[in-house]
Amino acid sequence: GPSNSEGGGKVSLLKKVPALKDGDFTLAECTAILLYLSRKYNTPDHWYPSDIQKRARVDEYLSWHHANIRANAPKTMWIKVLIPLFTGQPLPSEKLQEVMEGLSTSLKQFEERFLQDKAFIIGSEISLADLVAIVELMQPVGVGCDIFEDRPRLREWRRRVEDAVGKELFFQAHEMILNIKELSNIQIDPQLKEQLAPVLMKMLK
User: Fold this and answer.
1) Beta bridge partners of 21
2) pLDDT at residue 90 greater than cutoff 70
3) How many C-beta atoms lie closer than 10 Å to residue 4's C-beta?
4) Per residue in 138-149, pLDDT tens?
5) How far apart are CA 64 and CA 56, in angstroms?
């Protein structure tokens, strides 16, 4: 999302988070950051495989993800919690229905094209593709839209991701998302509301 801080502008020219500062080196965009970290710290091969075809499958999913899963899943959180918090007004239910229909189409493609009958997106081992996917798909869950409930193949994939990461770490990583509704109780500075409300509404167009 947007970051209006002076420090944020120095790290990311787009003034958006996430952003990484590693010494004098700065980097924006979550996928670029993940790939950079996996290379710098020589992570286990399954995260971003050295096998050229397996790596290409990770890249293929990451390329598809942004225009499909990411284009819809996070909007559930904005519609149900964040935009009402900053604008003081709930959005019409039709807006959520529209997003859920788009997400449903993407999930069907995700299961049929990428997951198929495999344990994980690129095969028998977890990769960065699975991490990027699960983080987005937990956002609807956090606002009460359980997209896993009626999708057994997707539900089993989530269970395998949890087991591969470790349940404690998995839920620690998603703690803020799963408790996002608690933000409804906080008080937002009126000036900040005035600044951010138009930006947030624009994100849904």
Assistant:
1) 26
2) yes
3) 11
4) 999 999 999 999
5) 12
Residues 78, 203: contact at Cβ < 8 Å?
yes
Beta strands, E only, the chain: 19-22, 25-28
Condensed to tens digits (0 to 9), the pLDDT of residues 121-160 reads: 999 999 999 999 999 999 999 999 999 999 999 999 999 9
- Structure token pair of residue 131: 């991490």
What tokens were used for 72?
């819809």
Question: Is there a contact between 158 and 134 (Cβ–Cβ < 8 Å)?
Answer: yes
| Greatest CA separation for the chain | 52
Instruction: Say which DSSP state 111 is in.
Output: I
pTM of the model: 0.84
Domain spans of the chain? 8-41, 51-204
Residues 6+ apart with CB under 8 A from 151: 107, 111
**Which of 81, 79, 109, 73 has the alpha carbon at shortest distance from 92?**
79
Report in angstroms the alpha-carbon separations of 33 from 26, 30, 86, 139: 10, 5, 29, 20
Q: Say whether domain 51-204 belongs to CATH 3.30.200.20.
A: no
- Euclidean distance between CA atoms 123 and 11, whole angstroms: 36
